Amino acid sequence: MGSEAVVKAFADIKAALAVLNAEVDGCGSAPFSAADPLAGLADGSLDILAGAAAVEAGVAGLKARAAMKYADTAQALAPDMPVQAQEMAVATEIGCVLAIGPRAASAFLAASHALTTTLPLTLSALQAGTISWQHALALADETSTLDPAGAAALETHFLDPATPRPAGAATIGEMPAHRFKHKARTWRERHHTESIEKRHAKGVADRRVEYRPDQDGMAWLSAYLPADQAMAGWNRLNALARAAQGPHEPHTLTQIRADTFASAILTSGTNPNFNAANSAGAGAGTDPTPSSPIRAQVLVTVPVFALMGLTDEPAMLDGFGPIPPSMARKLVADGADSFHRVLVDPGDGAPLEIGRTSYRVTKAMRNWLRMRDGTCPFPGCSNPSLDNEADHLLAWHYGGTTGISNLGQPCPKHHKLRHTTGWTPTPATKNEPPGWTSPTGRHYKSEHQDWEPPHWPQSVLSSLAARLKLAECHNRQAHRQQPYPPVPAVATRIYFVAGYHRRKSNWKGSSTAAADRPPSTVYSV
Predict the structure, then answer these.
(1) How many angstroms separate the CA atoms of 448 and 432, rounded?
(2) Would you place residue 190 in the very low, low, confident or very high pLDDT band (cuts 50, 70, 90)?
(3) Which residues of 112-145 are buried (b: 16+ CB within 10 A; e: fewer)?
(4) If 0-12 CB within 10 Å is exposed, 13-18 middle and 19+ buried, where does residue 376 land?
(5) 256 neighbors 244 (Cβ within 8 angstroms)
């Protein structure tokens, strides 16, 4: 009988868990390594963790299928029950079985329905254990408002083995789900730009501040804001907190940041002696008003044609992700006071490499690293690039050069990890950040930026074709030779990388010294 098979299968699973628990306790039938039992146990424990993650994913896929099978059979057993009542009854039953609340049960059913009806690749990857339930939820969430063709395209891009991707890039299942969700959201906004403005307008209308009590006499105060305002505020808090640090400052950066925030909202930032946690704290009340000499930078990468209003490509807000082109144009018009023109690879949209032969990492190189990596390249780290530190992968005193391919930009935490433990970065390239090797010798791939070729307005392509045709005719008449091979339609792309501050000022050329600028500063289309 079917029920007997189910009981036996779960009994076998429990027996297998008992075996694995014995192995973790070092009481297995044989040690992981007879030569070095301690090192073998450490390595074997990691193997058990990896295997358990794959099994958990498979079980999550099984739960999703079982939930939808129950929902379908429940509907078949009571075909005359109103739809809303049927859904409520199913969600209540599943909530009781899984010991979760009604809202969580409804969300679980919605995700299960998406996986079993419109996301077959996602369900297969989940059952195979190559992605987790959290990864599957991210895909279900990002495809929830797309039509079937759009959902299939997004799923195919990330999960179809035939989709080209860099060999050194972390696979979807090798990066944390929150980083994958960021990638999925970025791809969605780039390829379904028709909805970002409408959804952004709704988000702006829903802006709010929320308060939530917590334990130990503490509470959370958070704000839901347009991304550019939130990033500018966050980076400004970081800048002010760093400026307040010093040899006689006893508070941590995190504490100073919280004190500065409290000062700003409770005193309008006008009392230089105020400290929400300790009124004697040095520097925590640094004036955060726009007149302060400390200004926090936000980088906005804008495709030049989107900046001109000729295309609807989203811009990229450093540390956040895709934003509506209208927001980027507003930043350029109202808030940015410096910019760099950046030439990118016409094939994949990645920034081109620059290099130096001296030890010093120039400002231009640091900007290039930020564009190459986006965040700290340590697997799973999402620390924004403004917080990170340039680091030679092969140390200078061991012969390492100062070039993009030999530089990483780990956050302070992972920079310290590299120099105080056995974690080491692996080689990078001009377009790919380094991966990392752990003290146990296991290699972990880094997340890669999702560069894409540019989108050219049809009017520009038509004009370019006419100019090429005219040049071809002139060439034939002047030299009586065969015409040159046709120039690819996608020849180059210009990005404006805007340094945006919370102080209104006019645009001007970058003040970067000539020695620090990229080798080419004038580009033509």
Answers:
(1) 6
(2) confident
(3) bbbbbebbebbbebbbebbbbbebbbbbbbbbee
(4) buried
(5) yes
Q: Is the predicted pLDDT of residue 463 greater than 70, yes or no?
A: yes
| Dist CA 464 CA 469 (whole Å) | 9
Taking Cα atoms as reference points, which of 222, 221, 262 lies closest to residue 241? 262
Residues 6+ apart with CB under 8 A from 108: 64, 67, 94, 98, 100
Helix axes 133-142, 102-117, angle to 10 degrees: 80
Q: Model-level pTM?
A: 0.67
> Token digits for 128?
């195979």
Q: How many residues does the chain have?
A: 525
**What pLDDT score does 342 carry?**
53
Helices then strands, counting H and E runs in the chain, come out as: 16, 12
At residue 359, the pLDDT reads 60
For residues 401 and 359, is the Cβ–Cβ distance under 8 A?
Answer: no
Alpha helices in 374-420 (DSSP H): 412-420
Q: How far is CA 191 from the centre of its chain?
A: 17
Say how far apart CA 459 and CA 39 lie, in whole Å: 64
> What φ, ψ does residue 303 adopt, rounded to 5°?
-60, 135
Secondary structure, 3-state, 66-88: HHHHHHHHHHHHCCCCCHHHHHH
Strands 443-444 and 321-323 come out as unpaired
Residue 466, token pair as written in the block:
């006419």
The whole-angstrom separation of Cα 301 and Cα 190 is: 13
Q: Is 246 helix (H, G, I), strand (E, B) or coil?
A: coil
Place of tokens 């009854």: 89
